[in-house]
Amino acid sequence: MIVGCRDDEENKNGQDIQLIENVNGTVMYNTNCNMWYIAVVQKGNYDSVTQYYPTNLDKEYQEANKEVVFSGKVHQMTQQLVVPAGTQYFAIEITKINLK
To answer: What is the pLDDT of residue 1?
Structure first.
């Protein structure tokens, strides 16, 4: 499995593409990019994962394997990441987050 980031891209996020509400996920850390993200596994299909890279994750949630329920504004990321097949990734501005 290869996961990584391209350093030559600015980390700016695009326009809102959707709002999500009350999604269950697991906080993880991408060591290649030095960025926190929330992993969401599609129910019934563990080969399909969405990674949400928060622009505003509070320090109290910055702990690997923390189970959370979150809502927010999803954006396309302009930074290119190398992720496993079946993985999508987006930036997110979190509007609500709680421990599961």
So the answer is: 35
For the chain, the average pLDDT equals 86
How large is the average pLDDT for residues 16-42? Answer: 93
What residue ranges do the domains of the chain occupy? 4-99
Stated pTM of the model: 0.83
Cβ contacts of 31-36, under 8 Å, gap ≥ 24: 32/3, 32/4, 32/5, 32/82, 33/4, 33/5, 33/79, 33/81, 35/5, 36/61, 36/62
Instruction: Kindly report the CATH number that applies to the domain delimited by 4-99.
Output: 2.40.50
Residue 3: phi and psi, rounded to 5, are: -135, 130
Burial of residue 54 (CB within 10 Å: 0-12, 13-18, 19+) is buried
Place of tokens 């809502």: 71
Q: Tell me how far apart the alpha carbons of residues 53 and 11 are, in angstroms, rounded to a whole number.
A: 11
Q: Are strands 45-54 and 87-99 parallel, antiparallel or unpaired?
A: parallel
Top pLDDT among 90 and 14 is at: 90
